[in-house]
Design a protein that fits this description.
This protein is of the alpha/beta class and 329 residues long. The protein contains eleven helices and twelve strands. The chain binds adenosine-5'-triphosphate (ATP). Belongs to the ABC transporter superfamily.
Length: 329
């Protein structure tokens, strides 16, 4: 089957505008006015500390935020999926957009063979016969680099390592040729060498299939190596977005700069660990103005009165700060 991804890499497969997620009584804003695009064949990293709203953003994009209020526009290859009825949405999930999670062991069904889990997905979404679905599942297990795909097909999750299970999850996610893959910290539960193998695999699949990938991560190393563009999130809002080279050469938001400064410099033995002072604020008690102001060395009274709007500095690049860093110092 031909991938349905557009061949023009500039086409936005995902276009999100003003996405907002709140608790049912609207007292807590978990995701606040988020706007981003992911192009075909592009990996956008959504970067931020724990608790800043990355996972909630990914669940909102999949329309899986049961019980919470969600508003804003979500467009998948030109089609509005924010208002799509749930029945149609469940056909889009897995078929047009797919997601992989942190812990593959818990995402897989422990009492079904992994091959059967994949073939059930392709039978449901693509209407293949049992035999064709099995063949497709074995081909997918091979594509994600599992050495003995026929044997793997009949294995149960507990018979495979964590890295193998994540490859199975990726095979299942790409089984129906989605145009968008959302990967929520897919390597966090894996050891370092396996992390690299899984990230390399996602990179290869992105290029080969032309999928857009939204990569949720707090790992700057992953961002620097694999992402094409980066969106930095803090306390539910995007505070900076840029292509990866620009972001690493001039991190304009003081929060982005703080994250970069927190990376240890292995070549400088005298380099001490730096940590951004303070912690991410509780969403139920956000300070007025810019949420980062209490931790920011550049903040002044302006910053505690209003949230700074977007200052753009190139295509798809912006920073939300009254005192952005102008150049690397
Ligand atoms: N149903 C809910 N009601 C209120 N607050 C919630 C709800 N669900 C999540 N939150 C809060 O929303 C914030 C964002 O959570 P989220 O899991 O999206 O963060 P994250 O950036 O993905 O963190 P991590 O990297 O640890 O997964 C957290 O402070 C969390 O406590």
């Amino acid at each position: 089957m031909q991938p349905r991804s557009p061949s023009d890499p500039r086409v936005a497969v995902l276009d999100v505008a003003a996405l907002t997620v709140t608790t049912p009584d609207n007292s807590i804003v978990i995701v606040n006015d988020l706007t981003l695009q992911v192009a075909a064949g592009e990996m956008l990293a959504l970067l931020g500390e724990s608790g800043c709203g990355k996972s909630m953003t990914s669940l909102a994009l999949m329309r899986l935020t049961n019980g919470l209020n969600t508003s804003g526009r979500i467009t998948l290859l030109g089609r509005d999926i924010a208002t799509t009825p749930e029945k149609a949405m469940s056909a889009i999930r897995g078929r047009e957009m797919a997601m992989i999670f942190q812990n593959p062991m818990s995402a897989l069904n422990p009492v079904r063979s992994v091959g059967r889990q994949i073939s059930e997905t392709v039978r449901r979404h693509m209407g293949l016969s049992r035999k064709a679905a099995r063949q497709r599942a074995i081909a997918l297990l091979e594509e994600v680099g599992l050495a003995d795909p026929v044997r793997c097909y009949d294995a149960y999750p507990h018979e495979l390592s964590g890295g193998m299970c994540q490859r199975v999850m990726i095979a299942m996610a790409i089984s129906c040729d989605p145009i968008l893959l959302i990967a929520d910290e897919p390597t966090t539960a894996l050891d370092v060498t396996i992390q690299k193998q899984i990230m390399d695999l996602l990179h290869i699949l992105k290029v080969r299939r032309g999928m857009g990938i939204l990569m949720i991560t707090h790992d700057l190393g992953v961002v620097a190596t694999y992402a094409d563009r980066v969106a930095v999130m803090y306390a539910g809002r995007l505070v900076e977005q840029a292509d990866v080279h620009t972001l690493f050469s001039i991190p304009r938001h003081p929060y982005t700069r703080g994250l970069m400064d927190s990376m240890p410099d292995l070549e400088d033995a005298s380099d001490l660990f730096y940590a951004i002072p303070g912690t991410v604020p509780e969403l139920r008690a956000l300070p007025p103005g810019c949420s980062f102001a209490p931790r920011c060395t550049r903040a002044d009274t302006n910053c505690t009165h209003a949230f700074p709007g977007h200052t753009t500095f190139g295509a798809n690049s912006f920073v939300c700060c009254f005192h952005p860093v102008e150049a690397a110092t």
